[in-house]
Amino acid sequence: MSSTSRQKKKKKNKFGATSPPFIDYLKEILRRYPDGGQILKELIQNADDAGASRVVFIHDERHYETQSLWTEELGKYQGPALYAFNDAAFTEEDWEGIQRVGRSIKQDDPTKVGRFGIGFNSVYHITDLPCVFSSEHLAIFDPLKKMFGEDEEGYRWSLDDKEDRESLLNLRDQFQPFQNVVSHVISCSWEKVISEEQYFKGTLFRFPLRNEASEISDNLYDSTKVTQLFDSFIVDADISLLFLKNVSSITLLHIDTNGFCSNRLKVSASNQFDTDLSHVKQESFDRKTCFKTVSHISHQMEETRSQWLVTSCLLKHGYKPEIDSLASKLSFYPQVDAAFRIDED
């Protein structure tokens, strides 16, 4: 596409989640929440909130070509990356919400954010350029405003736009990192998604690993750190599904520099409700109880199973005014979940 054509499309494709103090806001978030190990759990919770049932994390160590790119500057982000997929597609509200991150933050409390708040911003521990492909769009965030022109906070291609579809298909190097990974998470080719369906039935985040210090962070992330990130998650993997409402399967994949894909972990959970225990309604609270069976398949393809008794208790509105007030202020439900591991007896 010529530079003139691109200028015409800029307004339509304008995208980004920044406001004037956004970089300072990000620095404060990363300072207050230095534990990058929570990234996977935050992204799982986001997927659960969206109603997803399946989550896949992929550590891709490959370096992609840099000949056909949208801008030459994007070449530095064609290296190793962490991907996060879930099978719930973005709604228009989600696209709006993810761009509002940090816009309505109180100066004295940067933790007051919504669904795409702390959970999403934690990815800036590892990347400067988050990308997301979902429903009818593929977007790149550029809070440093270095990739798409002065004061451009990002860019979004739309599958319902003919010129954008041509870019997604013809700029092969630029979108090869998405094309190669899409085939690992859905049974549909990149070309079919873009040309025929013009809709991606899920959400795929790509986080190119930070390999040099930036204004956002001087925390460098290499493949060793991603391996450690996966290792720390695997330790708690069996209990990661117990308190989720929708997600019932989590998979960790590794793709080496030669393109060989190996399964590091798969955990899945199934529910069994006891009719006598399943749902108890009292005057002041609702309680739901079920048995959960968790399957854990390791990279050696060995399966182990564990069974849990899980109960969830929600306090009804109007019985504890001080709790009602706190729940409203925090935008939380006054709910407690508990799980107890049971043996064969």
Q: What features would you describe in this structure?
A:
It is a single chain. The chain is 29% helix and 27% strand. A hairpin with a 5-residue loop joins strand 7 (249-255) and strand 8 (261-272). It has helices at 3-13, 22-32, 39-49, 92-99, 118-121, 162-170, 172-185, 190-197, 223-235, 321-330; strands at 54-60, 81-86, 131-135, 137-141, 154-158, 200-208, 249-255, 261-272, 279-281, 285-298, 303-315, 335-342. Strands 1, 2, 3, 4, 5, 6, 7, 8, 9, 10, 11 and 12 form a 12-stranded mixed sheet that branches. It is built from 10 helices and 12 strands. Mean pLDDT is 87; it is low at 103-114. By secondary structure, it is an alpha+beta fold.
Q: What order do the helices and strands come in, and which of them pair?
A:
Layout (H helix, E strand, L loop, with lengths): L2 H11 L8 H11 L6 H11 L4 E7 L20 E6 L5 H8 L18 H4 L9 E5 L1 E5 L12 E5 L3 H9 L1 H14 L4 H8 L2 E9 L14 H13 L13 E7 L5 E12 L6 E3 L3 E14 L4 E13 L5 H10 L4 E8 L3
